[in-house]
Inverse folding.
């Protein structure tokens, strides 16, 4: 039966996922049985009592016993399902007191994470296997929804208030985070990656940041371009998006909203990334999120080198 | 089969081909635009919703086509079929048009308008002029909705969730005002039907001698009148926030975005029943007629309609289990939701039981009724996954939801509507449609529908969120299959339309009672005269009584 489950449901990344799946499969089999029952009855009656001219039909207006039975029995079944659902929901709703707490901010269209030690990540985090983790979430703009299919958890991320989800990752590997509340153009690209790994690998990651930061800056920058979500607004092939394309901008003079002209160089690009509100490019909205505190020095240098390389 | 009524003047069976009827008694566009005849108004609604269905359907095909491949391109084209922005607009309009311009008015305003007074043995609805006003309001609302497409479009989703809807560009204010105006059309129709049912029943027709279609439309009308004002107020608040920055829903202005969802679903959950009860009402007519046997459990079906109407007001929170509403509220809403499942389940079993020991013929309307039974069962059973809290957490806001509500709204209401349209087509137009093509179309629709939407239960369970322009490559096979299904479905619906329209070129050839129905609309000529009946019909037997005349009557 496991293969039928895996046909419908993704990998079970946590104990909670198994709990959800057991109820899912119960309702599934119940539905299959009821549906087949209704189908067979319908088709059989249509065939057995098919039209014959002049056939007299019986006048069966109701049958109290039968009707009572098919009211009461389903009532008990659905009440059973209700309690089963509440049972799982209680586990989902109440996080253990010692859970590792990660702050999450959702904004158009990226996920920003902050660990208790103050370090920040965008769209990718690592977690140790087997330790309960709780995400405390809020939004900077519109509604989003933090959805991890493999963990079977999901919760809206609401501006002006905090919501949370928690789980205990049980399976090492990459787990996909999707935004499940419609939030506009980049809604379907608002994804993050949770890498669940052994305690040792996790600690190394915390200390050093991703090991591949020691590659040539342009390569680091190319990865950061996608990892930090710059690609949702900036193209590298000259097409205009929410933001300007990066192709061939290096060394140009750019006109700002306030009328001034600025040369695109190290300093300008650096400032544009860390504090984009300082200068707004003419013809664009001030919608770029500030990346101050969200980039390691090597990542920032990589991005600058990458933009420079796009001639 | 027994005579149900005594219609003074002529017997139902062999009336001469109608010379004079509501269609030809007056002619010219003006006579239609100023008519207060419920039958003509019903036809005018039918035309309106058919256009809306065509528009909304083409948009659905476009959405599916865009999702055929992950890069949204087909046949090696260099540009995507729709850009992300355009995609968001198209699925929003598909939803808004289908809900507000098509499904909500489909059965009540189009078929209900035509059939309800006939079934009651009345000359017209209680307030004929108000009825015409409702139609004009519908048209004005529809024009506003279409104008908002041209004036910038909207990309909020049909649910208009704040703060996205108060901050995004486009013609959101105009579209919400369109829905606001359409609401009045719905309310007026509801009031009209309630008064008609209370006041204009034929002599001899007590509440429990009313056809079940009337019970269904009556329950719907109650919801329309009570729930629609809440939507109106909500949309006005939304417009106030958008235009004047009054902080009601936007957290930055001191409002609460979750409040909007409460208001919205306080209307829109009952609206789900505004959409499905009329569908059920049609099935309650089709089942006994084509089984030539009385309906099983008349009272259970009638009372369950009312029960559904009432309970539907207290389950709205099941749309919000992961929205941030209190967990206690979620638990209570989950419980109440399971309660509302029971009356719907009862109805399905009653309809199946009606066929038992019947004399069942499978003309197109009955094929639609059977399709309904199967599709609606799937829609209802998958609702169990969503009513239960822990499974809903995983499934909500995914394609599972999309599949579930299409099984209920389209597999349920729309299939019932098309079934009802075939059933009453001879009465409305005086022509029989081509049975062969109608059956082919029904089969294609059924197959295409399941290809399109059964797939989406799998997509959703695997974690594919809804309203996604881009998707992970792993989902492509299922998306592609769903898109192929949409073509089969589209073909089925086009054949249906062609088959019905083609019949209009024939001369009148429909008998007064082609299906052997027992309700009063079959006791007048096809198409009826302007005043429906010659003289006041009197109900002598209960509806769905197929015992020979002279046998003991009464339940
Ligand atoms: Cu989103
Ligand atoms: Cu609902």
């Amino acid at each position: 039966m496991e293969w039928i489950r895996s046909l419908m449901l993704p990998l079970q990344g946590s104990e909670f996922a198994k709990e959800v799946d057991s109820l899912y499969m119960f309702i599934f089999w119940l539905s299959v049985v009821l549906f087949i029952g209704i189908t067979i009855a319908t088709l059989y009656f249509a065939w057995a009592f098919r039209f014959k001219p002049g056939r007299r039909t019986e006048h069966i207006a109701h049958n109290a016993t039968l009707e009572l039975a098919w009211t009461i029995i389903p009532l008990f079944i659905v009440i059973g399902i209700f309690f089963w659902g509440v049972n799982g929901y209680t586990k989902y709703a109440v996080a253990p007191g010692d859970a590792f707490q990660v702050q999450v901010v959702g904004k158009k269209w990226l996920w920003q994470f902050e660990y208790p030690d103050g370090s920040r990540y965008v769209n990718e985090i690592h977690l140790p296997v087997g330790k309960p983790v709780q995400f405390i979430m809020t939004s900077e703009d519109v509604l989003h929804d933090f959805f991890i299919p493999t963990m079977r958890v999901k919760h809206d991320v609401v501006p002006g208030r905090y919501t949370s989800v928690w789980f205990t990752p049980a399976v090492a590997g990459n787990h996909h985070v999707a935004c499940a509340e419609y939030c506009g153009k980049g809604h379907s690209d608002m994804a993050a990656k949770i890498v669940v790994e052994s305690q040792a690998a996790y600690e190394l990651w915390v200390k050093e940041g991703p090991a591949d930061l020691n590659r040539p800056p342009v390569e680091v920058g190319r990865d950061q371009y996608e990892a930090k979500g710059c690609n949702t607004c900036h193209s590298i092939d000259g097409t205009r998006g929410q933001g300007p394309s990066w192709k061939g901008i290096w060394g140009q003079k750019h006109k700002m909203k306030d009328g001034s002209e600025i040369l695109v160089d190290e300093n300008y690009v650096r400032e544009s990334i860390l504090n984009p509100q300082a200068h707004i490019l003419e013809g664009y909205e001030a919608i770029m999120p500030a990346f101050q505190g969200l980039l390691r020095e090597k990542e920032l240098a990589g991005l600058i080198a990458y933009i420079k390389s796009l001639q | 089969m027994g005579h149900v009524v005594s219609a003074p003047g002529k017997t139902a069976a062999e009336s001469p081909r109608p010379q004079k009827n509501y269609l030809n008694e007056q002619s010219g566009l003006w006579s239609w635009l100023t008519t207060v005849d419920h039958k003509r108004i019903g036809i005018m609604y039918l035309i309106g919703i058919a256009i809306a269905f065509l528009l909304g359907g083409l948009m659905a095909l476009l959405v599916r086509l865009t999702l055929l491949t992950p890069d949204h391109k087909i046949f090696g084209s260099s540009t995507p079929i729709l850009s992300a922005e355009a995609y968001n607009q198209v699925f929003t309009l598909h939803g808004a048009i289908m809900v507000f311009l098509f499904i909500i008015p489909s059965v009540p305003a189009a078929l209900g308008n035509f059939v309800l007074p006939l079934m009651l043995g009345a000359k017209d609805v209680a307030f004929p002029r108000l009825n015409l006003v409702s139609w004009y309001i519908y048209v004005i609302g529809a024009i506003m909705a279409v104008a908002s497409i041209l004036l910038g479009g909207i990309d909020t989703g049909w649910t208009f969730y704040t703060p996205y809807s108060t901050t995004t560009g486009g013609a959101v204010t105009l579209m919400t005002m369109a829905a606001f105006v359409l609401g009045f059309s719905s309310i007026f129709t509801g009031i009209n039907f309630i008064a008609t049912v209370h006041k204009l029943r034929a002599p001899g027709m007590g509440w429990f001698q009313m056809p079940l279609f009337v019970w269904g439309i009556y329950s719907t009308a109650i919801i329309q009148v009570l729930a629609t004002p809440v939507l109106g107020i909500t949309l006005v608040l939304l417009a106030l926030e958008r235009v004047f920055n009054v902080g009601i829903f936007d957290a930055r202005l001191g409002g609460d975005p979750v409040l909007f969802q409460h208001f919205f679903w306080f209307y829109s959950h009952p609206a789900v029943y505004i959409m499905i009860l009329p569908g059920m009402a049609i099935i309650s007519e089709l089942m006994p007629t084509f089984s030539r046997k009385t309906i099983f459990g008349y009272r259970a079906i009638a009372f369950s309609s009312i029960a559904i109407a009432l309970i539907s007001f207290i389950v709205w929170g099941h749309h919000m289990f992961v929205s941030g509403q209190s967990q206690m509220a979620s638990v209570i809403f989950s419980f109440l939701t399971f309660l509302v499942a029971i009356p719907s389940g009862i109805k399905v079993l009653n309809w199946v039981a009606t066929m038992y020991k019947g004399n069942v013929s499978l003309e197109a309307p009955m094929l639609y009724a059977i399709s309904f039974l199967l599709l609606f069962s799937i829609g209802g059973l998958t609702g169990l996954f969503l009513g239960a809290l822990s499974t809903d957490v995983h499934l909500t806001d995914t394609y599972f939801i999309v599949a579930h509500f299409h099984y209920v709204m389209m597999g349920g209401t729309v299939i019932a509507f098309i079934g009802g349209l075939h059933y009453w087509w001879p009465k409305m137009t005086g022509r029989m449609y081509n049975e062969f093509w109608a059956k082919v179309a029904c089969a294609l629709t059924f197959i295409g529908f399941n290809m399109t939407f059964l797939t989406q239960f799998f997509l959703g369970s695997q974690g594919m969120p809804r309203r996604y322009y881009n998707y992970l490559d792993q989902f492509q096979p299922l998306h592609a299959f769903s898109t192929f299904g949409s073509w089969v479905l589209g073909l089925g619906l086009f054949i249906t339309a062609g088959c019905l329209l083609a019949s209009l070129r024939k001369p009148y050839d429909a008998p007064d009672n082609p299906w052997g129905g027992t309700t009063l609309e079959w006791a007048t000529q096809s198409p009826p005269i302007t005043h429906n009946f010659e003289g006041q019909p009197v109900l002598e037997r209960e509806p769905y009584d197929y015992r020979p005349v002279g046998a003991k009557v009464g339940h």
